[in-house]
Design a protein that fits this description.
CATH architecture of the domain at 6-130: Beta Barrel
Number of helices: 9
Structural class: alpha+beta
Radius of gyration: 25 Å
Largest sheet: 15 strands, mixed
């Protein structure tokens, strides 16, 4: 196990950051003038994001003595080729792997200006994100949701990046009328049920997000399920970040903070642990009432159990949703096949919608924020193991059995300067209790 210390992470990971003018006339490497670079990934974001702060002095020979704003000029959509890498053990780890990472200027703003220099901040996004803001998707879609997600990414957004799409078990036939592609994809994610990690009627819900490795379309239970995703690394917080981590851990945690995200009133309003759905079929005038309650035996969780509330409070159903069934809409096939399917539900609201409400809100039940030595091997959506010492008046080597255990990386930031490299992680999970082991994936 190659360990990374806080000292070794201070070695600059900035190799090159080359920006090209839109007319192709100028190209310049900003690496020597960068004061700060922040690289972001999140399961809640449609694109990776990079903030680059650099000093524009106009001293470069490549620009004929002009500043970048004068020579280019900066207008947005300029391409930026990034090469960020580090040595971990005996191997060189690059952000983006073997492929060159290319992002585009989404926004730029001068932070400080005087007669000699200008400090500029660039907001960089992926090509698909910028393209998606200037186009819409129209047409009728049939079949599995996962197939339609792949179709939008490839045919409409024209991505050439790697796609890691977890197959769905359910179909969704619909017509899109000039919808933004990422709006459409996120709309579908709330209606998806995994064929591998979820059971219809018990759980639902996906996340669409981008990492430096490509686009991911993953179910909530697939992210938490240790059978589907093994823990990537293990970390421990012991207030000694500059020493070698204990055996079995990849590194020490530099900073550690824990948050409780369970507000009883807010979670109740969202129907996080109990809800009710009322569906009405206008063709048969039949309506159905179904109550859903959280059951950690039928879903994949990262801790030992979901929160347990005081039985004195009635939690039978804290939210009610109403839907009119779209029976017989968008049947596929020839005329005979369409007639045969005219009585079928196009989308099973009672088996999917409220189950997705529950899982999304359960997902953010417990949160930990940690800072570790910079590590390009980590990505949003990955499962890691965290240990912290148990609070005790006397010094204790016992770990915290409640807050420790498996967590999902919901947000990741690589903070890089010419002299410092650290990774800041926001970790979340749906349940409580230490589960798993720091040295093995269970």
């Amino acid at each position: 196990m190659a360990q990374i210390s806080a000292r070794s992470s201070a070695e600059s990971a900035l190799k090159s950051v080359v920006i090209k003018s839109n007319d192709g006339k100028y190209s310049i490497d900003l690496v020597s003038s960068i004061t700060e670079l922040c690289y972001y990934e999140s399961i809640m974001m449609d694109s990776v994001s990079v903030d680059v702060k650099f000093v524009d002095t106009g001293s470069s020979k490549d620009l004929d003595g002009k500043t970048i704003k004068e020579a280019f000029p900066l207008t947005g959509t300029e391409s930026v080729n990034l090469k960020l890498s580090q040595k971990i053990g005996d191997k060189e780890v690059s952000l983006g792997g073997d492929k060159e990472m290319i992002l585009y200027v989404n926004d730029f703003s001068p932070i400080v200006e005087d007669t000699r220099k200008s400090l500029i901040n660039l907001d960089l996004r992926s090509k698909e994100y910028i393209r998606g803001q200037h186009m819409s998707v129209s047409g009728t879609f049939y079949g599995l949701i996962s197939d339609n997600v792949e179709k939008v990414l490839k045919d409409d957004l024209k991505t050439e990046k790697e796609l890691d799409i977890e197959p769905t078990i359910n179909t969704r036939n619909f017509t899109a009328y000039h919808k933004k592609p990422f709006y459409l994809l996120n709309w579908l994610s709330k209606q998806s049920v995994s064929s591998e990690n979820q059971k219809k009627g018990e759980s639902a819900g996906y996340f669409l997000y981008e990492t430096s490795e490509g686009y991911k379309y993953k179910s909530i239970d697939g992210l938490f399920g240790q059978d589907d995703q093994k823990q990537k690394k293990s970390y421990i917080y012991n207030n000694t970040p500059d020493t070698k981590a204990p055996s079995g851990y990849d590194a020490n945690i530099i900073n550690f903070s824990e948050s409780n995200l369970i507000n009883v009133q807010k979670k109740a309003k969202m129907g996080t642990y109990s809800n009710r759905i009322v569906t009405f079929d206008p063709f048969t005038t039949f309506y159905q009432v179904k109550t859903n309650k959280a059951n950690d035996e039928n879903i994949k969780i990262s801790g030992k159990k979901l929160p347990e509330f005081n039985p004195e409070f009635d939690m039978d159903h804290t939210r009610t949703s109403y839907f009119v069934l779209d029976t017989g809409s968008f049947p596929e096939g020839n005329l005979k096949q369409q007639l045969e399917k005219s009585g079928d539900e196009n989308f099973e609201y009672g088996e999917i919608v409220n189950q997705a409400f529950m899982r999304y809100n359960q997902f953010f039940s417990s949160q930990i924020s940690i800072t570790i030595p910079g590590d390009f091997e980590l990505h949003a959506g990955e499962l890691i193991f965290v240990d912290a010492p148990q609070l005790n008046i006397e010094k204790s080597d016992e770990v915290d059995r409640q807050s420790g255990g498996l967590y999902i990386i919901s947000d990741l930031c690589h903070y890089i300067t010419p002299k410092e490299f650290r990774t800041e992680l926001t970790l979340v999970r749906d349940s409580f209790g230490r589960k798993g082991n720091h040295t093995t994936s269970i």
